[in-house]
Amino acid sequence: MNDFYFSDTINWIKSDKRISTWTTIYKQWEENNSREYLFCLLFPKKLIKQFIKHPTWSLNITHLKPYYVHYSEKASKYYRWGIESKYEPLVYQQFYNNIYPTKYELIEEIQQFFNLYFDSKTNTYVSIDIASEQSEVVKIIKKGDNIEFKIRTHFLRQFLYTKKMVLGFQMDYFKESDKTLKEQNLNENILFDEFTQFYNFNISFKDYSFWDRCKSDSRLLGKVILFGYESQNIQTDYARLNSQKCEDFIVNISTDSGEFIYENCNKSEFEDSNYGFYTPVFFKKEVLQKYYHNPNLYTIEDGSLIMKGSWRLYIDNNNYDFIVVYLGDLRILPNQDQLYWKSFNIEPQSEVNKRRFNIDFLSSYYNPEIEDLKFKNEYIRVNKLWLQKFGFNLFSEFDENDIHCFKTIRLPLKNEAGELDVLILNLCKVLIDYLNTKSINKHLTSEQKELRSIEKLEIFFQINHFKDLEKIISFYKTLQKLRSTGSAHRKNSDYKKILSNLGYENLNEKGIFKEILNNVSSI
Fold first, then answer.
1. Does residue 349 contact residue 322 with C-beta atoms inside 8 Å?
2. Helix (H, G, I), strand (E, B) or coil at 8
3. Minimal CA–CA distance to 437: which of 450, 425, 453, 424?
4. pLDDT > 70? residue 487
5. CB under 8 Å, gap of 24 or more: what pairs does 502-505 form?
6. CB neighbour list of residue 227: distance below 8 Å, 6 or more residues apart
7. pLDDT by residue (tens digit) across 79-124?
8. DSSP symbols for 12-31
9. Closest Cα to residue 249, out of 305, 287, 297?
10. Which of 134, 149, 280, 323 has the fewest CB atoms within 10 Å, measured from its CB?
11. Which branch of life, at top level (predicted)?
12. Distance between CA atoms of 239 and 353, rounded to whole angstroms?
């Protein structure tokens, strides 16, 4: 329905804009018999009266660009936004005389202030803080020639506080009608208006006797003010990180009551207490699920969980059923992640194992014992040895869109068929699809180059007299069959037959993938 009297807009003008999640700071939108133009200005509080004096726009987006102000009796002077007054935009325009598309940009200052990254795929600006936490701050909505900039109100009000400025909205909205004003009991002399200290608007009406587009329209001109926060807790990044709340974790069980004993993770390595920095804290293995699901941001290695560009949490993940972390190390996690880990916290399971103790306190490295960590180490080691012997890598370098296939290979966290399917697909991709057939082809005839990758590998093995050739190729073909009969397609009797031939028919999903990784490592 066409709101000829702008009821929704007036309600917004009169509302408390501080409580909105998002705030529109620029809009140029024509659709469904309406036209909406909104442009915001930053300016000091002392200019509020001047700005709010009348609803007519003080400046529009075409007025503001770095340029000279010219005078009749003195030399021209350069101004950042080409005007003498203290008005600044949040969004500016670059117009190229219609030779190239007009561009609308968010000012550089706010991009730098919140460390904003522009994601061209989603048309959003994302803030990345010192802890690598990401927040969507600005989103740009486009539809044809229409465009709208929205900013998260919390960030906007932080910026206004920092600048010691307010934000002034200027609106010029039109609603068209297929009826004349007379048919709506209106005429061009009618004017609705309202003026207050912090907003104003007027609504006027016009007839169009000779315009095909519509017979009449209404127009709202308005202005309104948004204030920043009254105060802010200004801290350095370091102080903010170190002032975050630290959580309590289970460190023991009372021998008297059987209740859990909790201790805060805000520990110094040199602090003397019953449950100090190096107290082992235990978690369900499923705690890693969140990080495996986001491999672009997180990397899980033997003994470490790493958040790109931010923190490294030292962990003992060389266990089948649980993860162990030293109490004091948990402090490195942002509070939101501490709460997440706390939800997987379990009672102590055992003492720190010998391998972990030797690594952490004796600086002695021992190879991992758990199959997924062993596989990743072997994959990298074999590639290096192959390069030394043959002059090229056995496995090609991963495409950036496939690196997650290698990073997320693990023992299943749950006994679920879906998780096993994905793991088999990823394993096939890194072992079969990433065979370096381009380099292998250099050792083959023209006819052999037309064969499939496993067949090419078999011929290369034959040429170089590999031991256990049949065992290796047999495993590769079995792995390919597992993918084609189960993970990549609808499961059938062939899939069950392969599991039976391998001796896996009585194993659960964790057991199946464990044995597959054992077979990979053995060959």
1. yes
2. helix
3. 453
4. no
5. 502/478
6. 18, 157, 160, 166
7. 999 998 899 999 999 999 999 999 999 999 999 999 999 999 999 9
8. HHHS-GGG-SEEEEEEEEEE
9. 287
10. 134
11. Bacteria
12. 36
- For residue 234, what are its two tokens? 């200004």
Sign of CA dihedral 246, 250, 252, 258: positive
Alpha carbon 284 to its chain centroid, in Å, reads: 25
Enclosing H/E stretch for 502: helix 493-502
Nearest to 304 by CA among 326, 335, 279: 326
Q: What is the pTM of this model?
A: 0.79
Q: What tokens does 431 get?
A: 């072992």
Reported confidence tier of residue 483, pLDDT bands at 50, 70, 90: confident
The β-bridge partners of 316 are 324
Q: What type of residue is 203?
A: I
- Cβ count near 232 (within 10 Å): 11
Residues 183-210: tens digit of each pLDDT: 899 999 999 999 999 999 999 999 987 7
Tokens of 465: 């007299």
Burial of 377: CB neighbours in 10 Å, binned 0-12, 13-18, 19+: middle
Find where tokens 């309406």 sit: 34
Judge whether 118 and 125 are in contact, CB under 8 Å.
Answer: yes
* HSE-up (13 A, CA, CB side) for residue 437: 16
Q: Do residues 428 and 480 touch, judged by C-beta distance below 8 A?
A: yes
Report DSSP state, residue 419.
H
CA 170 to CA 36: how far, in whole Å? 11
- Rounded CA gap, 25 and 3, in Å? 22
User: Among all chains, which residue has been given the structure tokens 């009372």?
Assistant: 254
pLDDT for 2 equals 66
Nearest to 487 by CA among 431, 433, 418: 418
Residue environment code for 156-171, b if the CB has 16+ CB neighbours within 10 A, otherwise e: bbbbbbebebbbbbbb
Q: Given CA atoms 78, 79, 85, 91 in this order, what sign does their dihedral have?
A: positive
Euclidean distance between CA atoms 245 and 249, whole angstroms? 13
Question: How many CA atoms are closer than 13 Å to the CA of 182, on its beta-carbon side?
Answer: 2
CA distances from 351 to 225, 326, 345, 403 (A): 62, 12, 16, 35
Q: Are 228 and 163 in contact (CB under 8 A)?
A: yes
Report residue 56 as tokens.
């007519």
Q: What type of residue sits at position 129?
A: D
Tell me, what's the pLDDT at 127? 96
- Quick one: tokens of 292? 């495996």
Task: Cite the beta strand spans of 376-458 per DSSP E.
Answer: none
Check if the beta carbon of residue 454 is closer than 8 Å to that of residue 480: yes
Report whether 43 contacts 171 (CB < 8 A): no
Report the C-alpha gap between 400 and 296 in whole angstroms. Answer: 9
Q: What angle do CA 512, 516, 519 make, to 5 degrees?
A: 140
Q: Are 105 and 90 in contact (CB under 8 A)?
A: no
Are the beta carbons of 495 and 482 closer than 8 angstroms? yes
